[in-house]
Write a structure and sequence with these properties.
heterotetramer, A alpha+beta, B mainly alpha, C alpha+beta, D alpha/beta, B: mainly alpha, two-stranded antiparallel sheet, 12 helices, 69% helix, globular, C: alpha+beta, Alpha-Beta Plaits, 3-stranded antiparallel sheet, two-stranded antiparallel ribbon, 4 helices, 13% strand
Chain lengths: 387, 334, 126, 170
Amino acid sequence: MIKQMNEKELITIEHIEPIIPEDTDYNFYFGPAHSGSGNFGVKLRIDGEKVTSARADPGYLHRGFEKLMEYRVPMQNAVLSDRVCILEALNWNLVHAEAVDELTGVEVPQRARYIRVLMAELSRLQSHLIWYGVMSLALGFDTGFKMAFGYRDYILDIFELITGGRVYPAGYICPGGVRRDLPDGSEDKIKRVLDQTEEMMQKMKDFDNIVFSRRTKGVGILRTEDAIRLGATGPVLRACGVETDVRKDDPYEIYDELDFDIPVRREGDAYARCLIRGREMEESIKIIKQVLERLPEGKVREPAKITPPSRVKIPEGEVYVRNELARGEGCVYMRSVGEGEPYRVKLRGPDFLHMIPVLEHLLKGSQIADIPAIYWSLNICPADMDR
Amino acid sequence: MVVTSGTALGAVIGTIGLAAFGLFCGLLYKGFDRKISAHMQSRIGPPIIQPFLDVSKFMIKDSVQPERALTWLYNAAPIVSLASVITVLLYLPFGGLTFTPILSGYGDLILVVYLLILPALAMVAGGFASSSPFATVGAQRKMVTMMSYEFPLAVVAIAIAWKLNQLYPGESVFGLAFIYSHPLWGHVGPAGIIGMLLLFFSIIVVTPGQLATVPFDIDEASPEIAEGLTAEYSGRNFALFYLADAAKMVAVGTLTVALFFPYDLSPLIGISGPVGSFIDFVFFLLKLFLVTMLTVTLIKTAVARLKISQVPTSFWGFTTAIALVGLILLVVPN
Amino acid sequence: MSMLKTIEVLFETLFSKPMTVKFPYEAIEIPEDYRGEHELDIDKCVGCGLCAEICPNRAVEMVELPEEHKEKYPKTYPRLDLRKCCFCGLCQDICPRKCLILTKNVFLATPDPSAVIKNPMPKGPQ
Amino acid sequence: MAESLYKENKVIEDISAKFKVAGKVQRERRVWVTVDKDNLIMLCNFVKGLGFEHLSAISVTDWPEEGTFELTYHLWSYSEKILLTIKTKLDRTEPIVNSVISIWGENAQIHERELHELFGVEFEGNEDLTPLFLEDWDGPPPFKKDFDWKEYVRQQCYDQANERERAYYD
């Protein structure tokens, strides 16, 4: 039978005073140890059912990438870069790879640039599917969660086929191009996956009325000037009427040769953010189809072989690269002094601004029951906030 | 309360047998519920016997108790909850008319309707006793749901009893055995049929409220207040709550079947005697299965959770209105 | 209203084939060059140490073989510490002789701690 | 690719007309401007007027040999569609600069809070410089180049008895 631990052996934990609500005004930790919040905590001050003040409590996923990257060569940093936010690993690979390419001035082969955009858009699709799954789970719609993650799995099968890993591409988009060529027969596999994703998007439209419109309309409204002042980017900003997308305004790779449009809405509430993400998935599918048609032949990486770390030299210089991630604008400032390792790397994740200023602003004055709707309509990912 | 089935000893054995079979049936239906809602979400889902494995697992785990909890109430709550559900089962015509309910009497429909509150009340008491902020918020929310779904349920009970009283004045209209043996569908005009359908619809909305399944599971809404009421429970205590929940699903299902589908198969096929009653019993289980799938599984898979502020309005406003219209349509035009 | 549409979608899915598979009995097959457990072909390895140099997590270390194999394999060979390794496959790409290959085996959970360190061993019976 | 960088050069002309700056157009849509610490705030105000509303990031690069912190403000203008980076140098021993909260609001406030914690840069005018990621961290600012983290970890939590740790450290 279970050995009864006697009093001595028990580790004595100093007595923690639980928060018993005296009257209606009390603290409420939508905190890290909580099934609805990811590893990130918000300290809320609540009066009755209304939130009077919110204070973000980050730092649970701080791994110090900016310091780690100062001790590794770009090829190793590429492997590191997809752990900045694994929900869109390939997008972060792309940001990092572009920064190094611009520093070294290498001419990335055309085929590699097309494969890079293909993989980045596939990663955006599966990131939006994760958002849809977790958002419907937060609103209590279990079917949406199970189906979204089920259909996302088909996209992960494509990643498994091409990059060799389901969630971790391990620096597939690396400085100089991509690490491996597309295995033959992968084009029609991708086309089949796109049809399956469209099937899921049709289901999302069917489920729309029950889940989203009732729980998110008029909830968490963000005005345009607040959005800019708080640093919102991506879908959160486009939901407040600002028509801006880094792929159009500051085009990189081959985005200027592709035609796609940017969904923009005026209301700025949680429902607008949901609609925009749904429309963005359609645009991503359009982009992928165009890329698949025009995929040129040729090499996939400029220096075909990986140069050993001892002989890698990045030319002196500094560069600031901006990319449109699924969550917003992700940037890398890289400074090099001519050695093999970058001298300073600054990663700017979209969620650094969405989870602290924007979330605190939106939660103030909202209802308790609306917290998950607001929280997940920002599509937060604590990893790229803490870095 | 007149004990109809002979000696007290018969009643005790009957109770134990009924309780065991009710729990077995409840866990089995929970297994079906998870399997079917899984297939509705295009996944395979756990085996049918998963609830049995869960309960046996909970039984083995040791039950940890929070330091500041009110110990006697904390441990009594699960026991009271399960016991009250079993007493409800005693009154219900479980398995068609073949087995007369062990305890039956004059006004047991009213008694059943209010006895069904006791498990929820015990859970609320347990939640407050465990002194965790999540459980406290969960308990407050559970009371709101309990208070709001009582009104439509009462309207449905009164409607049926009132109509029966009109048809058979002077009978014990609130006795479940009587209700079960006098189906209403045949004796009401078209308006009555619509009235009965409206009443059945409001029962469909009330059942998730009673069982705290999805649209109304705000008391243990995991994203907002992690696990709410039963946050501090584990091991045997949680197993008892789990069993009470399973048995309650059977009890509420049986009540719905008794009120709306009290037909027996054997007279139609003309077989009587032990084989007939066995067929009735299986037919009853089939009816119970269909009603549970409709009210619990389908709604759980198809609908999202409501906000705490929407629960009272959806019950007091929407459902009660439909129940009242059903009542008027049923009772007035005869 | 879209509640009926949802119920229709659910019943459609109820009678169609589920996406998931019963794992231990049937499994989704893993594609060709998946990055799983390492495999070292010690005869081709020249001990250049490039894999140890490129590893981002410093999981590869060049070690000598135990005494009885020393004369047949005098050089140093890569020893892999699977606790640190993130299976990125850089060592496989940089190896000039292509003798360190990542196989498709992903079932690496093991109770004994010694199996986590993959020491270079000559193939076949000693 | 170097079509007419007219807009970028115009930005530099507007700025250098008013301030003594060293400007450079790196490529299209990328303008780098270096300014000294004193008229940083005036330049930021002026530049905000030019349309650079979006503060993308603030970063600090540590130069221990020169004894300076190099502060870089990356600003994006939605209307002009140009990224302007303002660089300025601070003395390393007591790095004090006035905060840009008045210009870019909470966006700047949270960046400054992070840099204060990781580099120890003082931002005058930003009251809430409380710890952000590293709550109960009593060591020196960890991202500075001269912070020897190996030594710090060795003192703080090197436990002799643990055989694996000993193998790592010795």
